[in-house]
Amino acid sequence: MGDDLGSSSAAAPWGYLALLAVWPVALxxxxxxxxxxxxxxxxxxxxxxxxxxxxxxxxxxxxHHFRIAWNWRLTGRWELPAETLFKNLGPAGVIVFFMITGFxxxxxxxxxxxxxxxxxxxxxxxxxxxxxxxxxxxxIAALSWLAADTVSALPASQAWKSLWTWLxxxxxxxxxFRGTPEAHLINAGVIWTLQYEWVFYAALPVIGLxxxxxxxGAGSRVAALVILCALMxxxxxxxxxxxxxxxxxxxxxxxxxxxxxxxxxxxxxxxxAAASILGLVALGVMLALPGYPFGALAFLLLWGPFLAVxxxxxxxxxxxxxxxxxxxxxxxxxxxxxxxxxxxxxxxVPGEVLGHAAVWLGLPLVAAATSLLALACFxxxxxxxxxxxxxxxxxxxxxxxxxxxxx
Length: 407
Fold this sequence. Notes:
mainly alpha
């Protein structure tokens, strides 16, 4: 079958079959590795079903970027896919990742009475995020060097500026690497979500003070969060610099989730089979929504299944399975590194093959390779660095990846 990549039928049927294969392939890799050599992932305490869902979210983002990168390779344009499903997969993953972050850190602040130990928090963040991130930067730099058509030495000042840009997650707009101006797309541009995460972290002291002001009762917190969710998700999709309020609404929905689940009857009902079915239906509806994927309706549709998962709903046992938890523990590395495999794949595929359905075979192959690397990176880099950060921060609790970072 020849593919017209600008048409809505470009992904059918092979693209959808390849997409269906992504999760079983990745879970098989995770299951095989965890059986062969059990690591810290299988011994971790779990926080509801959030550990199990994060790997699925990262794979959804990967599939989204695979489709975008294919078109980028053909046309030179990095833009949303024409197919509704592939267009919505990435935003759905990002929205829920932000909900997880908001849920976890709002809960920590509520538990601490609104007080934040800034020193311990910063140490934990740096040791959680930077080690794997620095490794991904080294890989991006290497691929940038290898992929450049012409490589010329940058002036020292420009080289240092470029390095500083990457180390600060691209808050400075110059994201070029030596010889490759679009180097930020080698990892599918995923650092933009880390920018949002860091803005949320920076806002936590203010959020803590707000919690102190609302301390007399949970009702005032719920009312404030409902208003905030509505205002943020309904904010117009217009750029305010690089930050857009409506995209960040996921953090507020996550905080609202924490408050909602403090009602035991609701939390119990959300763990039932009916909630599983309704949650999956809502997810399917969101993935079929036409138009802009970060709209208010998308947030509401995703909030339903997120409520259930945060309450401990395992979606018929899938999210509690060993491979799902192992893959979820490695989801941050999966998120960081998948773009590199996607980029390498499309650099290796001959140009004359790019218009054929056979390219879709690359999607499960990329999922397998990325999952293997991510699992190894979690064991060798992430888990030790999390433990070191906790020691330096004076914490004695065991490592729990889901408490550390959304992806």
